[in-house]
Design goal:
The protein has 216 residues and is of the alpha/beta class. The chain contains six helices and six strands, in the order βββααβαβαβαα. It folds into two domains: 127 residues, Alpha/Beta hydrolase fold, catalytic domain (Rossmann fold); 32 residues, no CATH class. It has a six-stranded mixed β-sheet with strand order 1-2-4-3-5-6, with helices on both faces. α3 crosses α4 and α5 packs across α6. 21% of the residues are buried.
Amino acid sequence: MDPITYDFSGQERQIQVTDGDPDRPLVLLLHGTGGTVSDMTTPAAYPDNNYDFAVPFPPAVTVGWRAYPGIGVWSCCDLDPKKDVRSWRDVLSSYKFRTAAYSQVDNDGFLARPVEELQVVMTALAKAYPRTPIVLLAHSRGGLLVRKFLKDSPALTGQVRTVITLHSPHTGSDLASVAVSLRRTVEDLRSVVGTDIVMAALAGCSTSSTPTLTRK
């Protein structure tokens, strides 16, 4: 089926849709952090992480001394073999469910714009399938996106019959406490070795992607 187009922030974007049994719900697939539509439709192509971790370790390989490290193009060994993987779209299509999927904006940022985009997507789907029940199937951060969408957009949820979330941190994540623990450690170091030494050390290891701490 041809994709459904929609406009968001002045850009024309697309929802990939598949055919199926019209008597079954339409399943909207929502990827997680840093993902794209491929996560839910063609995971073997992207993110291409379908390594078979269950295979036995290969026997030890000894190559002797050499000038180059045994990594990259000079590596003597292969990574774990790949295993077959089917996408959620493939599985659902095999059971005659229609599916829809798209790549979210700001896929690793705040949820405000992705929620606005989901509102536009749901409006487009309601227009294309006005009497079809919709199931929201979301992975990880996609579950949080759905949660906020349901809270902020009750007028657009009339066709939503079921919500399924996979590995979504609805009760929080241990990663959220890392910043608190780090700050506590920094404060302890300040009290022991002094602020100047700690700040000098942190300044030496900071990067553009690492938040810096400022002296109070």
